[in-house]
Design goal:
heterodimer, A: 113 residues, mainly beta, six-stranded mixed beta sheet, five-stranded antiparallel beta sheet, 0% helix, 54% strand, B: 113 residues, seven-stranded mixed beta sheet
Chain lengths: 113, 113
């Protein structure tokens, strides 16, 4: 089955700096890659997603890139703000697996004011 | 508000007991997914239903079962509970069984004493 590795597990950045989280996946049949943000005690919230026919997608301060050949994808957050502090999860899914999400282990991001 | 409703929010029970967690998907969504989130295992896929039928299964224990009813709400039944079953249980829904965004409910926090 699919396996998703996520790095780093923790990330501390200064407010205004950029944050980058990287994920690799194992199943070449995966073709949908969402990113979720989870604040303490809350539900995972979808912040951006990308499909395998797209190399990059941007939404304001958040961008995601996908390299299908290398089987890795990354989340980029620019001009970080204290409210960006949370745990971020990458995930992968594909129709062959019934669209179930396989999650990475999460990255705890701390934005220092 | 994601539109996915989960009840109850909290559940405290003892080992050996049985509980039922309930999920109502977003209006119009046909697919329901159950995930377990524990500190040491991260977010793990349990089971998916699409329009009343089981579509995919993860590492769900035999003590756990689920179903999706004609009105599309779903229930996750956990029996012979063990201390290790303590976790956050999330339900998510998506439009169909293809690679679509999944939106999570607020979860049920299950504590086994």
């Amino acid at each position: 089955g699919e396996n998703v590795e996520q790095h780093p597990s923790t990330l501390s950045v200064q407010e205004g700096d950029s944050a980058v989280i990287k994920c690799t996946y194992s199943d070449s049949a995966s073709n949908y890659f969402p990113w979720y943000k989870q604040e303490l005690g809350k539900r995972p919230q979808l912040i951006i997603d990308i499909r395998s026919n797209v190399g990059e997608k941007k939404d304001q301060r958040i961008a995601v890139t996908l390299n299908k050949t290398a089987k890795h994808f990354s989340l980029h957050i620019t001009e970080t703000q204290p409210e960006d502090s949370a745990v971020y999860f990458c995930a992968a899914s594909g129709r062959a697996a019934g669209n179930k999400l396989t999650f990475g282990g999460g990255t705890r991001v701390l934005v220092k004011p | 508000d994601s539109g996915v409703t989960q009840t109850p929010k909290h559940l405290i029970t003892a080992t050996g007991q049985r509980v039922t967690l309930r999920c109502s998907p977003r209006s119009g969504d046909l697919s329901v997914y159950w995930y377990q989130q524990s500190l040491d295992q991260g977010l793990q896929f349990l089971i998916q239903y699409y329009n009343g039928e089981e579509r995919a299964k993860g590492n769900i224990l035999e003590r756990f079962s689920a179903q999706q009813f004609p009105d599309l709400h779903s229930e996750l039944n956990l029996s012979s509970l063990e201390l290790g079953d303590s976790a956050l249980y999330f339900c998510a829904s998506s439009l169909d069984s293809r690679e679509q965004p999944q939106h999570f409910g607020d979860g049920t926090r299950l504590s086994i004493l």
